[in-house]
Amino acid sequence: MTSEARILIAPSVLAADFADLGQQVRDVTDAGADLIHVDVMDGRFVPNISFGEVIVDAIRRSTDLPLNIHLMIHNPDDLLPCFMKAKSDQILVHAEACPHLHRTVTKIKEAGHQVGVAINPGTPISALEEVLPLLDIVLVMTVNPGFGGQSFIPEALDKVKRLYRTIQSQGYAAQIEVDGGVKADWTAQDSVKAGANILVAGTAIFNDAEPVTQSMARMHGCVHGLKPE
Ligand code: DX5
Ligand code: ZN
């Protein structure tokens, strides 16, 4: 990753109106989303169940954008084929959920997908050390995963900074993504300044206060021109 990496906005459909999901995905696509963030929760790795393969397939049919598929699934290996369909889609697994992380990462790469590993707020960067050279994305959770609408954990910014420095100094390719509590304010701006270039936003994009065209424009506008410091 270079310091000039483009800032990508990935609306999380977890906050969308599921009675109108296809239209909501089309709306954020038209409003300039770069990726669609898809939260799959199993009720075991995280204390919530969201949706599985059938809904991911429906989202897939509603946009041409790459899906950024965030698997909050304990030991996801056997379920990977349910989510590794369109080659453009990015598959993200949790370091804490994979007993054989290197094998899982390798499987996803060998299937031709971009691969990411997510780490919870309580998980150190060192948990990634051995797989970091293989990764396209590191997802730094800025909330404890399981629910939308939580507050950004500011301590995660220092982790992003340290991770960014490591990636730069080693010449690795991984982009840094942040997820949880990201709004069109200091949370997005400080994340970019710390080195993240993929911003996930759920409730900041899908809410009753404004149409997604406005919330997307505000998110893009608030980070426009910012770079890692
Ligand atoms: C949380 C999910 C997030 C969530 C973000 O476990 O991984 O992607 O949808 O929602 P907000 O942006 O509302 O915190
Ligand atoms: Zn997520």
Can you give keywords for this protein?
single chain; about 230 residues; alpha/beta; 8-stranded parallel beta sheet; 7 helices; globular; binds D-xylitol-5-phosphate; binds zinc ion
How would you characterize this protein structure?
The structure is a single chain. This protein is of the alpha/beta class. Helices cover 30% and strands 18% of the residues. The protein has 7 helices and 8 strands, in the order βαβαβαβαββαβαβα. It has an 8-stranded parallel β-sheet. Helix 5 runs parallel beside helix 6. The longest helix has 15 residues. The radius of gyration is 16 Å and the shape is globular. The model has no long low-confidence stretch (mean pLDDT 97). The protein binds D-xylitol-5-phosphate and zinc ion (ZN). The site of D-xylitol-5-phosphate has 22 residues, from strand 2 and strand 8.
Order of helices and strands: EHEHEHEHEEHEHEH
The global form is globular
How can the largest sheet be summarized? Answer: 8 strands, parallel
Number of helices: 7
- What integer value in Å does the Rg equal? 16 Å
The amount of beta strand, in percent, is: 15-25%
Gap from first CA to last CA: 14 Å
Major sheet strand order: 1-8-7-6-5-4-3-2
User: What is the mean predicted local confidence, pLDDT?
Assistant: 97
Work out the helicity level: 25-40%
| Strand element count | 8
Poorly predicted runs: none
> What structural category arises from helix and sheet content?
alpha/beta
Name every ligand kind in the structure. D-xylitol-5-phosphate, zinc ion
Write the layout of secondary structure elements.
Blueprint: E1 8-11, H1 21-30, E2 36-41, H2 53-60, E3 67-72, H3 80-83, E4 90-94, H4 101-110, E5 114-119, E6 137-141, H5 156-170, E7 175-179, H6 186-194, E8 198-201, H7 212-223
Parallel strand pairs: 1-8, 2-3, 3-4, 4-5, 5-6, 6-7, 7-8
Helix pairs in contact: 5-6
The structure holds D-xylitol-5-phosphate (DX5) and zinc ion.
Zinc ion (ZN) binds next to strand 2.
